[in-house]
Amino acid sequence: LLLEDQLRNAIRDGEIVAHYQPKVDRDGIVVGVEALARWLPSGGEAVPPARFVPLAEETGLIVPMGDMLLREVCRSIRGWRQRGLHVGRVAVNISMVQMRDAGFAEALLECLAEHDLKGHDLEIELTESVFAEDRNAIAAQLFRLQDAGVHIAIDDFGTGFSSMSLLRHFPIHALKIDRSFVIDAVSSEESRLLLHGLIEIGHAMKLEVVSEGVESGAQFQLLRELRCDVFQGYLFSKALAPRELEAFLEAQSTGL
Ligand code: G
Ligand code: G
Ligand code: MN
Ligand code: NA
Fold first, then answer.
1. In a 3-state reduction of DSSP, which class is residue 148?
2. pLDDT > 70: percent of the chain
3. I need a surface site. Which of 51, 112, 129, 196 has the fewest CB within 10 A?
């Protein structure tokens, strides 16, 4: 069976699930989580996202997969709320293939409403490639989401081709600086200056600045000195299955 057919079956059979990677503030307190797709075939080995996410985008399967994940995420948020677990905003990655559907924003808001949730429960992460598309159509959807309280973050920031003047015309709330800028920053003066510049740009645009790929205490310390606002990476946690996330949050709230 071709991987594409396997993926189609996996979506149908519910083998694609969401895991959640925490995001923390300067004190290490969880302020939100990012939902990341995981393909867990029954009885088989997990398929890495780097293999199936690009394939899902090329084949358009990202649309039914994204719908399914959004529903699952909304169900989970609702369950956590009912149990008094505080996860903060939940971010979902949205590809430009999904954004091309003019009904995307409306469908997302409907899904929130069906689960008794509000815009402020959710954030979407977009890569800069989205802005190479029909800008007016994308902007209209983003403003609709912003009006409803959904936050919008630019993912992998610094690796794409968007200009600051372009980004200014969209209702963006946060920049997620790509982890490639964090990797060398502790050892290389040049990388550190670049990282500092990206953080300053974000703040000049009145945006929240998030660093991804934080793996060491030294990186965390440096990023705090550079006034980064939110941090994500293996130093704090990898992406966790829902049960693991619940245990993680419970341990944090009891100070363990
Ligand atoms: O987890 P990591 O290996 O977990 O993810 C690899 C890549 O796949 C990242 O670039 C991430 O943004 C992307 N990705 C993970 N989950 C989703 C998803 O649900 N939708 C989209 N569009 N991309 C995702
Ligand atoms: O592109 P996006 O930021 O959505 O992708 C998140 C990806 O980064 C996922 O593959 C996730 O598993 C991975 N990731 C998260 N934290 C770290 C980290 O600290 N180090 C590395 N190398 N990868 C990370
Ligand atoms: Mn992301
Ligand atoms: Na990234």
1. coil
2. 99
3. 51
CATH code of the domain in which 15 resides: 3.20.20.450
- C-alpha 155 – ligand 3 centre gap (Å): 5
Q: H helices of the chain, where?
A: 3-12, 49-59, 62-82, 96-99, 104-114, 135-147, 164-167, 179-183, 189-204, 217-225, 242-253
Which H/E stretch holds residue 124?
strand 122-127
Looking at the domain assignment, is residue 256 inside a domain?
no
Kindly provide the ipTM of the predicted complex, given to two decimals: 0.95
Is 56 inside a domain boundary?
yes
Confidence band, pLDDT 50/70/90 cuts, at residue 75: very high
Tell me the ligand closest to 99's alpha carbon. Answer: 1
Q: 54: Cβ–Cβ under 8 A, 6 or more apart, which residues?
A: none
Q: Quote the ligand 3 centre to 238 CA distance (angstroms).
A: 13
Instruction: Look at residue 30 and give its three-state secondary structure.
Output: strand
**Distance separating the N- and C-terminal Cα atoms of the chain:** 47
Give the chain's domain count: 1
Please say whether the beta carbons of 94 and 123 come within 8 A: no
pLDDT for res 168: 86
Return the ligand 2 atom nearest residue 235 CA: 19
Looking at 31-40, 106-115, 161-170, which range is the least confident one?
161-170
**Token duo for residue 52:** 């199936």
Full domain range(s) for residue 244: 3-251
pLDDT > 80? residue 146: yes
pTM: 0.96
